[in-house]
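Reopening this one. Same input as before:
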Amino acid sequence: MSQQDDDQHEFDFRWAAEAEHKEPSARARMLAARWRENPPDPVPFRPEPGPVGPRRSSWVSTAVVLGCVAAVIVLLGYIQTRSPY
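Same output, byte for byte:
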C-alpha cells in the first residue's frame, strides 16, 4: 500500500467529533434499558455519616512505623554479625 492509501484510511477525529448523530455506548444503552423497567432509587449527594470510631494520633502511627523499621535494621545487623562470611 502506498502512503496516500494509508492517509485516506486514517480515522479523522474532527469528522467524528462534528457528526450530527452520536450513538451511545453499549453500556449506556444497557443501563437505559434496565432503568426503563426498574429505575434506580435516588441517592443522596452525601450519605448519612456512620458511627465514628476512635482515631489514633498520627504520632502513634509514625512511632509504630519507625519502630518496625528499627527492628528490621537491628535484625539484619544481628544476622550479618552471626554469618560466617
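So the earlier flakiness isn't reproducible anymore. For the record, The chain has four helices and no strands.
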